[in-house]
Design a protein that fits this description.
By secondary structure, the protein is of the alpha/beta class. The protein contains 11 helices and 13 strands. The longest helix is centred in the C-terminal third of the chain and has 17 residues. Bound molecules: phosphoenolpyruvate and manganese (II) ion.
């Protein structure tokens, strides 16, 4: 309460708290009175109290999320995939491939290149959220087909984006890991639908989302019954145009402290420039990332999207060598591809 709040104002706050179904504890102090809210499950909306006469501020002492928190589940979540690959345990999983699926030749060349270098998952958007409606929008259903074919030929698992709730089922049929993009991090109908799908979900941090907002979005998916959520740090918007986004390496450590969910890093969208991807990939693994999501194109200069941040296959091979060393230095290892399918 404000310094000098009247007894009447304090009683009104206490009465409102009781009316909301909680217990109010009035604690008079030398400078000001504090009114505690007791018996809540961490999800009190403070806006009703904040507007009452005499209230100085509402300070939440419990987190607004529950199932995603470390308090709820102290041991790390380990997400398992067909073939035995896991994310969230000792292994560091590398997902790599082009920004978009462009053609049969392009996605197969990319898949073979990243597999030869040691990636275990193939990325590639079939449905693309583009800032401009005039930019390449992706191949859609055809792109999903090409990804399924690339999986058959290389044994790589597939991570690809679902853009809307109606399109999620079709994506989930093909994808081993369903990606929800930065622009959709707070698309709550999509999150709820993802919570009801049977595939693991890769949830990317929004362009201007706090870590708490990222965790609350993940909570939507868990609350609907899907515990297999992997978070992704991909940089946030800031004042400096030297990089496309500000790659928040610290978010990896913050998330590991607050949540049991795995977090992977996307140094491609995090920087926007291919020369910065290798150093940030190293940094992310050193910081404890459970995996990397990296854009690699067989011919980046011809890419229909994000060519400037796409690695050449040789650069990707170098990145793999470096991150293997770093993973080992911190007691982890980069997941290796299984044998080629018969
Ligand atoms: C992507 O991974 O292709 C993508 C569109 O990323 P983001 O949603 O992080 O912008
Ligand atoms: Mn991209």
């Amino acid at each position: 309460m404000r310094h000098g709040a009247t007894e009447e104002e304090i009683q009104q706050v206490a009465a409102t708290i009781e009316e909301m179904g909680y217990e109010a504890r009035v604690m008079p102090g030398r400078q000001r009175t504090t009114v505690g809210v007791v018996g809540n499950d961490g999800r009190v909306d403070p806006s009703r109290l904040a507007g009452l006469a005499g209230v100085q501020e509402c300070i939440p002492v419990t987190k607004p999320y529950k199932q995603v928190s470390r308090e709820w589940r102290p041991q790390p979540t380990i997400v398992s995939f067909p073939g035995g690959l896991t994310i969230g345990g000792e292994d560091v999983v590398v997902m790599a491939g082009p920004c978009s699926v462009e053609s049969a030749g392009q996605i197969l060349d990319a898949a073979n290149a990243v597999r030869d270098a040691g990636a275990t998952m193939l990325r590639g958007g079939a449905f693309k959220p583009r800032s401009s409606p005039y930019s390449f929008q992706g191949l859609g259903a055809k792109g999903l087909e090409l990804l399924a074919r690339a999986r058959e030929e290389t044994g790589l698992l597939i991570v690809t984006e679902a853009m809307d709730a109606d399109g999620l089922e079709a994506v989930a049929e093909v994808a081993d890991l369903v990606q929800i993009g930065a622009r959709n991090m707070q698309n709550y109908s999509l999150l709820k639908r993802a919570g009801r799908c049977r595939k693991p979900v890769l949830l990317k941090r929004g362009l201007a989302a706090t870590i708490q907002e990222l965790l609350l979005s993940a909570e939507y998916i868990l609350a609907e019954g899907n515990p297999n959520v992997i978070l992704c740090e991909r940089g946030v918007r800031t004042f400096d145009s030297a990089t496309r986004n500000l790659f928040d390496v610290a978010a990896i450590a913050v998330v590991h402290g607050l949540s049991h969910l795995p977090i992977v890093a996307d140094p491609s969208h995090g920087t926007g420039h291919r020369d910065m991807v290798l150093p940030m990939a190293r940094a992310a693994v050193a910081a404890g990332a459970d995996g990397l999501l990296v854009e690699v194109h067989p011919r980046p200069e011809q890419a229909l999207s994000d060519g400037a941040q796409s690695l050449y296959p040789a650069q990707f091979a170098q990145m793999m060598r470096d991150v293997r060393l770093i993973a080992e230095a911190i007691g982890r290892r980069v997941a290796e591809p299984a044998g080629l399918p018969e």
